[in-house]
Amino acid sequence: MSYTISAEIRTEIGKGSSRRLRHANKVPAVIYGAGKESISIKFDQKDIINIQENKEFYTDVLTIAVDGKDVNVRVQAMQRHAFKPLIEHVDFKFA
């Protein structure tokens, strides 16, 4: 099964801007990998909350649509809220 997530480039970096994103129901994330420059992105909480319950989300290659380009990635790490069903941050690796 193939998953596609639409995302936007994140220009503000840091704890305060990440908190503001989470309050607006957005998820801050980063895409990184060897030999490529990392990309800070943000996407809607609703885009990921249901698909992250499938095991294929963690094992298969995902597609992230960023500024009209499709980037193939794998999930490296995910931080969840302590007691709410929310995603706080996702680390993706270039596939």
List the helices and strands and how they pair.
Layout: E1 4-9, H1 15-23, E2 26-33, E3 36-44, H2 45-49, H3 56-59, E4 62-66, E5 69-80, E6 87-94
Question: Can I get a quick summary?
Answer:
With 95 residues, the chain is α/β, with parallel strands linked by helices.
- Strand portion: over 45%
The CATH superfamily name is Ribosomal Protein L25, Chain P
Q: What about the largest sheet?
A: 6 strands, mixed, barrel
Into how many domains do the coordinates divide? 1
Classified by CATH, the class is: Mainly Beta
Which architecture would the CATH scheme give at its second level? Beta Barrel
Number of helices: 3
Query: Span between N and C termini?
Result: 16 Å
Q: What do the pLDDT scores average to?
A: 92
Could you name the CATH topology? Ribosomal Protein L25, Chain P
Please state how the strands of the largest beta sheet are arranged side by side.
1-3-2-6-5-4
| Poorly predicted segments | none
Structural class: alpha/beta
Overall 3D form: globular
Count of strand segments:
6
What is the radius of gyration computed over CA atoms, rounded to a whole number of angstroms? 13 Å
Helix content: 10-25%
